[in-house]
Prior knowledge:
Helix content is 30%, strand content 9%. The longest helix is centred in the N-terminal third of the chain and has 14 residues, at 18-31. Helix 4 (103-110) crosses helix 5 (118-129). The strands form 2 sheets. Strands 1-3 form a two-stranded antiparallel sheet. Strands 2-4 form a two-stranded parallel ribbon. The protein has 155 residues and is an alpha+beta fold.
Amino acid sequence: QIGQLGANGVTTNSFLNTQIFIIAWKTLLKSNQMEGHDFIVKADPDAVFFPDRLVGHVQQYKGQKVYLPNCNMFLDAPPAGPKLYGALEVFSKQAIDLLLNGGFDRCTNQLNWHGWGEDYFMQSCMMMLGAQGMADYNLVGDHRCIPANCDDYRR
């Protein structure tokens, strides 16, 4: 289902995909597949992702409860400040661990997420659980937020 921005709590003109991602994240959390990794990345299926390029963006945050908002559009729109843009979402393992032991259920029960996209939900959940957003506007190059040339090796 596609959202209609401004209609009854809807925060996006894109897919209202939060429910399927809640299921996916809960499945991943139960699997223990994230153990032994310092950072967890959710990439859209049409995103091109080079893990070796990520190292320079995240190494300073190793061991901290952080996620990386990567979009500086609509800074005044809630949640105020940089946005977590769904093409590439980066979380430290410590931030993801906040979802365990009832953290994820707290988010699904206390946030009014039904009109949201999954990136808005995850950012709101991370904020609610106390993870710190560390903005990185060189993480993603995409026409929907921060365009970048195809030869921009930083992104």
